[in-house]
Amino acid sequence: MAEVTTTEYVNGEAQKVTAKFRAYDSYEDSFRDYARLVSTSPRYQGAMQNLGSAQAFASQLQKAGYATDPQYAAKLSRAINTTLTLQRFNQA
Description:
Lysozyme, single chain, two-stranded antiparallel sheet, 20% strand, alpha+beta, 52% helix
């Protein structure tokens, strides 16, 4: 576990808090654990039913309470779409 200062939103207000997060030996371990969490938890079933749309997937994660940032879904879907665009560009 790692304790990190992070921004959480409470009643729409950004607040700095110290929170505990899992610590990983590698990015691969982190991504694998994230995929396991999201794909096996009933809490995120709505997100898993929307794998064809970055926006719908991100929106369902936010709706399920994955993050407190009110802009989380928009930020995540932008990151996913940018990555997909770059992958397509590099394959051409």
